[in-house]
Amino acid sequence: MTADNKSAYKAKREVKVSVKNLTKKYGDLLVLDNINFDIYKGELLCIVGPTGCGKTTFLNCLSRFIPITEGTIDVDGVPADPHIHNIAFVFQEVSAIPWLTVEDNIRFGLRIKRLPEDEIEKRVERMLDIVGLTKYRTYYPQQLSASMEQRVVIARNFAINPDLLLMDEPYGQLDVKLRYYLEDELMRIWKELGSTVAFITHNIEEAVYLAERILILSPKPSTIKEEVIVDLPHPRQFDDPKFVALRDYVTESIKWW
Amino acid sequence: MSEDREVKIACKGISKTFHVPGQKKLLHVLNSVSLEVYKNEFLVILGPGQSGKTVLLNCIAGLIEPTQGSILINNKPITGPGPDRGMVFQRYALFPWKTVVQNVAFGLTIRGVPLKERMEVAQHYIDLVGLNGFEKSYPAELSGGMKQRVGIARAYASDPDILLMDEPFGALDAQTRYAMEKELRLIWEKEKRTVCFVTNNIEEAIYLGDRVVIMSALPGRIKTEHNITIPVPRAYTHPDFLTLRKQISEDTDLVL
Fold first, then answer.
1. Residue ranges of chain A whose CB lies within 8 Å of a chain B CB
2. Which chain A residues are within 8 Å of B178, Cβ to Cβ?
3. Where are the CATH 3.40.50.300 domain residues in chain A?
4. How does pLDDT run across A103-161, given as a tens digit for each residue?
5. What is the 3-state secondary structure (H, E, C) of chain B?
6. Under CATH, what is the fold of the domain A3-85+163-255?
7. Which value does ipTM take for this structure?
């Protein structure tokens, strides 16, 4: 959490996404107030904030689902453009395409990108293998549990090698033991593919478990209150004193309850 | 631990099986579950995503009948739902066309309690859950945490002996959950009832419970139980809490 710690972290990284002066208003209501930050290539960044801080608005702005009032979002140095860049999004509500099988769900984005068939098949096999769903490849989402469905969505998103993968509390409704299992799986996928991931959560323990870096948002109108580097080796243990200290620190920073 | 060792709820050998439409095999949800709940105890039933815990709670509530086994409440077999058991649901189940005070007073209204009296009782519980000032609000105007407080006030207002809570904070974000857990414990300390609280969240179980009973994955049976002796109010990151959490995590099944 020191200044040295942060500059050391950033020194060896390449900027992938650059957000400058991001401001969002709904009429007169200012939700996001002049937010500036970079996301580094291959980084797993977690963004946390107090309940109601505008995190969903923030994500929707980043993914360009909604127009921003002011500011710019650049990917690889040029303005973010859906024709050039892929910003993928895993929602809180599971969104597997119900009329496609597991493997066709994974194929879906790859086909839209018009990749060659043999490359598509290669990626589908790889993703099925990484998420351990190979034997469920011909199943439909309704035949799977909620957590398996969510993993299909995650596989589908990672398969296209997005410039930025945004995840909005994807494990919110699942039980805690399962959450840890899926968080470990996410780490494996992330490490293997080297994707750039911004994971948004209200769960501070989850953020400390996953993140290389945590951005802490203030209450509305949101700005970036603080930035914390999580310099702990994987696998992380929730009862490790260093983990606990970091969790307590971030909790104190946003605690309203 | 509570000195009231009077048994309020006695479940013996509860099994529940469902016929699933379109499938030949039966779904065994509960497998001979026996459980006693003591007067004014805060009992937590903890289990993974699919362990039959809601089905067990619904059997105790009298909403469904076990396939086998018996349930005695105050030593009498149950024949269906009753005013002795108040319920709080995960998705609130509030009447959207009724105000907060009308929702809270509902159980009393249908029992024919006179208006003045039921408004007083409702007000008492609205104050208890910290929603003073919101009496005339509608559920759509409230946050998730506030809606659930209405649910809790409503359950209390009918003056049940027993409160049954089915993952009441499961739909809330992690921080609102912490806030509600703290609130609930404070409310319960002020007005103790026998509580049966179902959750899949280990931290929540340890924070709230006097005793935690752990259910296995389907078919659900009781694996083990833990008495929680950490003094209240409990701190989630206290070393004793974390040690117990690790232990309980090992006792819990992973269901993918």
1. 50-52, 145-148, 169, 172-178, 181, 201-206, 238-239, 244, 247-248, 254, 256-257
2. 257
3. 3-85+163-255
4. 999 999 899 888 999 999 999 999 999 888 999 999 999 999 888 998 999 999 999 99
5. CCCCCCEEEEEEEEEEEEECCCCCCEEEEEEEEEEEEECCCEEEEECCCCCCHHHHHHHHHCCCCCCEEEEEECCEECCCCCCCEEEECCCCCCCCCCCHHHHHHHHHHHCCCCHHHHHHHHHHHHHHCCCCCCCCCCHHHCCHHHHHHHHHHHHHHCCCCEEEEECCCCCCCHHHHHHHHHHHHHHHHHCCCEEEEEECCHHHHHHHCCEEEEECCCCECEEEEEECCCCCCCCCCCHHHHHHHHHHHHHCCCCC
6. Rossmann fold (3.40.50)
7. 0.86
